[in-house]
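Here is one chain, start to finish.
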Amino acid sequence: MDLFRSQVLICGGTGCTSSGSPELIRLFEEKIKNAGLEKEVKVVRTGCFGLCEMGPIVIVYPEGAFYSHIKPENVDEIVNEHLLKGRIVRHLLCREAVEQEGATKSLDEVDFYKKQKRVALRNCGVIDPERIDEYIAFDGYKALAKVLTEMTPQQVIDTIKASGLRGRGGAGFPAGRKWDSVRRQPKGKKYVVCNGDEGDPGAFMDRSIMEGNPHSVIEGMMIAALAAGSDEGYIYVRAEYPLAVERLRIAIARDEELGLLGDNILGTDFSFHLHINRGAGAFVCGEGSALTASIEGKRGMPRVKPPRTVEQGLWARPTVLNNVETYANVPQIILRGSAWFHSIGTEKSPGTKAFALTGNVVNTGLIEVPMGATLREIIFDIGGGIKDGKKFKAVQIGGPAGGCLTEEHLDLPLDFDSLKKVGAIIGSGGLVVMDEGTCMVETARFFMSFTQNESCGKCVPCREGTKRMLEILTRIVNNEGSLEDLDLLEELSRTITETALCGLGQAACNPVVSTLKYFRKEYLAHVVDHHCPICNGRKRRLVIKPELCKGCGKCKRNCPMEAISGEIRMPHTIDNEKCIHCGACWGACPFGAIDAIEEE
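Its structure:
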């Protein structure tokens, strides 16, 4: 085994990859070789470090020097000064890593990371996700070996139940109860399915885990299969996640080569075969029955329940269905015990939760915190506060099916039960922060537009009701609404919530209900004064000024509708047919290249 005095870790997640990290990897390897250091310094491509705002990110160990916004022209200086002479290049460090006294902070000492606790993300930004030996070096597949040689299926289920692990994909259903339900079904074919169809605007937690720690998901699925009595599984991934798909394929292939997947795993009578199924990007396929229908080759549409997925799921057989983050927690629970996991977070919501922190916040990126952490801790301590010194106004939590929370909720603990009491949900973990310059009526219209576009159309309440609500909201935003429209929005919200077929329709009105409750004055400004002091009801077209655009790709990565196109280091453009004027690109651009042009 080769030993190196230094390691250069370079983020290979989607964000940094689109900003040019593959070229940085090539240059570091070339310069290190030219300097005669190839036997002393190792270059490692990792998954996402989390602080996406600072990408491309390069970390040099053992010092833990945290370099941010690294460009190809910076590579020579890091190699010559840091790797050859041992002098940290201070002017290239992340801004938070430089202290006034002249000292430097390591990655773990930066404010963004200090309050985090990584369980599902523990290997992201640490190992090369395409090298199984690195995963094994960090106790990878040790939990699988334990359940195969030391535990019965019922003991595995009892451990997961005792841990209190709840599904991280939205509803928070106890994972152990779900596994137990499948195990208790009559003998016969059973399936284990992973939901990697992450469709919420601004959410990228599951993508980052699949890209940076794919073996943890596979190991978690295998443990679930052993517990539930299954020998076959599927990972359902959005086709828009090509890097995640590629790394999962590599991981599965290596597992099969080493006998960790397939027949008679580790010399036991346990067999498990795993497949990848790419979804077409329909948001509704995040719902269990729509997802399984899509895997079967049918149109992804929900069905009436019961029977539940645990009784009749994939091909009408009992199916364990959990999301990426849920499975990624499982190996650590098996290794460290249920009491360890239950000691993190809150009594009824143990463990941690990964969030995608986006919007008008200084430090956008991927985080993982103990359940029960407050919005104030996440937005101000980890996120660094609101951009440009502006005032916090609201945060949308739980994606398009979530609700908007306000300043009065900043000290609310983020757990399943506390959020439910205020009309919000954790959902998959998207957090979109908004400042004082955000019109909440337009925000509600944006989320309703997304939901209406993603409705499968199977049931009338969702298909027609969301369309009518979008028409009303558009009328209000254009200062053409009336007080009666507000009553109609509330009536339609109640009807759709009570009668829609699936969770998408039942939660579609949450952004409207929450903004009507907490920001009614802004609705009244539109329908009574016919003038909103924030947005003025004006129709605008967003453009990217080519003379200011550097082609960094940050606007493109943050756009929830994939309305921005362009090559790295070349001016980008916005397709206003797709653009929904959410402002994500505006907040992401570090060069002020986004502009709004009023339409006649």
